[in-house]
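Appendix B, Record 12. Input sequence as logged:
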Amino acid sequence: MDVKQGHPSRLKLRLLLAGIGAVIVGGLIATAFTAPLATRHPLLLITLDARNRYLVLARNVDLVPFLIIGTIRRALSDPLYWLLGRWYGDRAIRWLETKGGGGVLVTWTERVFAKAAYPMVFFFPGAVVCALAGRVGMPFARFLAVNVAGTVLTVSVLRIFGDILGGPVDAILGFFNRHLVATTIVTVTLVVLSLVLNHFQGTSELPPIEEFEAESDADPEPEAEAGPEAEAEAGPDQPSEG
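Logged structural output:
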C-alpha cells in the first residue's frame, strides 16, 4: 500500500474521520451498556469494543470467534490513525496531544517511539503510536504485520488471564445480571457525563473535520523526516551538478 504523504482530498478525509468516529461510537455504546452486553451478548460486546476489560468479561465466548473478533476489532482503528499520521504528520500528533486527551503521554510516547518504533507498534498500539508510525513513514505492510501479530498475542493473553480469573469474573457477571437496570443506569450516566465534560474542556477523541479540512485547503507541509527504512533505500547523497 503506497500512501503519499501530504493532505488528502476532502472525500478521503471525511471517510477516514467517519471510520474513526464509528469506532469511537462503538466504544461508547459498549461502555454505556456494559452490563447487559457482558452478561447476555458478550460477542457483541467485544465487536463494539475489544479493550482489555471487555475481553476479560467475554471469557465465555468460544475461543475461535473470541480470537477472530477480538483481534479484528482491537486493531480496526490502527490503520486509520496510521493514515492520519501519514497525511497530516506532526499536526495530527499535536492534535492528539492538546485536544485528543493524550497530554504529556504523547511527548513520552514520541521519545520511546524514536528509539523502539516496531516494539511500540507490537506491544502498545494505539492512536498515538499508530499516528507516529504513519508520520515517520513506516511501510504500511510492515506496520500492519507487526500490529496484527502483537494484537493476536495480546488477545490470547487476555483470554488466558480471563480463564485464570474465572471465579472473580463470573462473580462480576453475576452481579451485573442481578442488578441489570441499576448498573446500566450508572454506566449510561457516566458516559453522558464524560461527553459533557469533554465538551466543556474542548477535548474529543474524534478529530474535528472542520479543522482538518482547513489543513487540507492550506499548503501541504514539508515532508517529515524519513524513517530508517526510507533512509536505507535512499542511499548516499548524490553530488550536485556544477
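Residues 10-212 form one domain.
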